[in-house]
Amino acid sequence: MAETVADTRRLITKPQNLNDAYGPPSNFLEIDVSNPQTVGVGRGRFTTYEIRVKTNLPIFKLKESTVRRRYSDFEWLRSELERESKGCWSSSGTE
């Protein structure tokens, strides 16, 4: 019976220079939500947020865009991103 031995050698990696370490990532998607504005009166009141997107991903037609959306629209976007990224979601603000 053959015995299995774990390979514990280190992976061979190329040296990393400062540009590799601190330069822009090869692919990125930044989503910034800010500038809440409440509009309407009474039961017709709702809050919109400014959403800025910056990316270099080829699936997007524009590299930068800004729109205003209601909170419910952003909630949908966040749940879609969480579902697609399977736990890789990070937030710079409060949740």
UniProtKB/TrEMBL annotation:
Keyword field: Lipid-binding, Protein transport, Transport
Domain PX: start-end pairs: 27-95
A GO term from the CC aspect: early endosome membrane
Any one Gene Ontology molecular-function term assigned to this protein's record: phosphatidylinositol-3-phosphate binding
GO biological process: endocytic recycling; late endosome to Golgi transport; protein transport
Gene3D superfamilies in UniProt: Phox-like domain
Protein name: Sorting nexin-3 isoform X5
